Amino acid sequence: MKMGVAGKEVRLGIIGLGGRGRGQMKTLLSMPDVQVTCVCDLYEDRVQAGIDICREMKGNEPVGTKRYREVLTRDDVDAVVVMTSWTTHLHIATEALRAGKRVAMEVGGAASVDECWQLVRTSEETGIPVMLLENCCYN
Questions:
Q1: How far is CA 14 from CA 20, 104, 106, 111, 132, in A?
Q2: Across the chain, what does the average pLDDT equal?
Q3: Which residues, 6+ apart, have CB-to-CB distance to 6 below 8 Å?
Q4: What is d(CA 133, CA 107) in angstroms, rounded to the nearest whole number?
């Protein structure tokens, strides 16, 4: 298996498995150096869909949960991708940073300038980067 720049597989926790979340997870799983080890959503059918996608695309069965905090405590999760409702991004992202996880968010993670600064300050305090995956930031 071809590995990423650092020479090791990245183990992701996916938080939020609605239509966009499942679609983006498929894109991530198409990368040879990415493994999804945990999937999370408030709806059990979405959790099962995430497990099924991983099994189909990579042959592994990730842990499934309805509690995002469980994802943040796992040793087999290097980073989380937050694809929940945008109103929950900031809270989940700052908790993930404080738990030592790298964070990527599917859309901009804040609803105000103050929330943007909360995210920046938490990243600076923890020394852990955040990646905003918004594709329309500069339109």
A1: 12, 10, 11, 22, 15
A2: 91
A3: none
A4: 6
3-state SS string for the chain: CCCCCCCCCEEEEEECCCHHHHHHHHHHHCCCCEEEEEEECCCHHHHHHHHHHHHHHHCCCCEEECCHHHHHCCCCCCEEEECCCHHHHHHHHHHHHHCCCEEEECCCCCCCHHHHHHHHHHHHHHCCCEEECCCCCCC
The answer to whether 70 and 43 are in contact (CB under 8 A) is no
- pLDDT tens digits, 13-24: 999 999 999 999
CB atoms under 10 Å from CB of 129, counted, come to 11
**Per the structure block, which two tokens stand in for 133?**
């995956």
C-beta of residue 133 within 8 angstroms of C-beta of residue 108: no
- Tokens representing 44 are 């059990």
The distance of Cα 40 from the centroid of its chain, to the nearest Å, equals 9
pLDDT per residue over 100-135, tens digit each? Answer: 999 999 877 778 889 989 999 999 999 999 998 876
